Amino acid sequence: MTYLRVSAKLALLIAVSALTHTAFAQAAPAGTQQLQISAFVAGTGTFTGLEGGKNLAITAGADLTFLRFRRFRPSFEARGTYPINKGHISSQKNFLLGPKVEYPLGKLHPYVDFLFGRGQIDYHAPGFVFGNTLYINSNTFIYSPGVGVDYNLTHNLAIKADAQFQHWNTPVTASGAIHPTALTFGVVYNFDLNPRHRHSR
Questions:
Q1: Is 169 contained in some domain?
Q2: Structurally, how many domains does the chain consist of?
Q3: Long-range pairs for 12-20 at CB < 8 Å and ≥24 separation?
Q4: Which listed residue, of 14, 22, 78, 143, carries a Cα 20 to 30 Å from 191's Cα?
């Protein structure tokens, strides 16, 4: 699938970036850290937007966070969601990426994001009938504005609460679209690429 190939390429890019920046951070003086990398894994409850359907899914992702701009911290996020409990009507899987901006307030890190990508809807057997057509699955472009907050438990570990408000195109509704809501709760690990920066403050 196209979005799975994109996911694999992005994972490789993140890994190369992490290795490159780790080498830079070890060679650079304390206080010159340019990027921060974090990864998260979470459970997601999705209200699919199609005849009251619900999914329970696993979501995993990573963030590349850039230097602060005043109090704001811009970053780039990639995440994928795969259903483990597919409900009775349809199941949704997707891969999304896009910009994110957080505003740290002590241990609280509220943020907004705007993600986009590809998704697939599988309509459960015997399929979904609309008009004179039986649909088994459909693929679509997605856009997904969202809000969330991370709460730092330690320097490296945080918990996450996140809501995404999505737009999917689908041929099985009169409007040609559905608007799922995905609620995500999980844990975040922040990689310390330059520990000397933290210890020297």
A1: yes
A2: 1
A3: 14/62, 14/64, 14/78, 17/64, 18/191, 18/193
A4: 143
Residue 201: inside a domain, yes or no? no
Range of the domain at 146: 2-195
For a pLDDT cut of 90, what percent of the chain falls above it? 72
pTM of the model: 0.78
> What's the start-to-end Cα distance of the chain, in Å?
47
Q: What is the CATH number of the domain that holds 53?
A: 2.40.160.20
Position 67 scores a pLDDT of 74
19: its two tokens:
């290795």
Q: Could you give the CA distance from residue 36 to residue 121 in angstroms, rounded to a whole number?
A: 34
186 located within any domain? yes
- Kindly state the percentage of the chain with pLDDT values over 70: 79
Q: Which of 100, 123, 111, 101 is nearest to 170 (CA)?
A: 123
161-180 tens-digit pLDDT: 999 999 999 999 999 999 99
Q: What is the mean pLDDT of residues 96-104?
A: 96
Instruction: Report the C-alpha gap between 173 and 175 in whole angstroms.
Output: 5
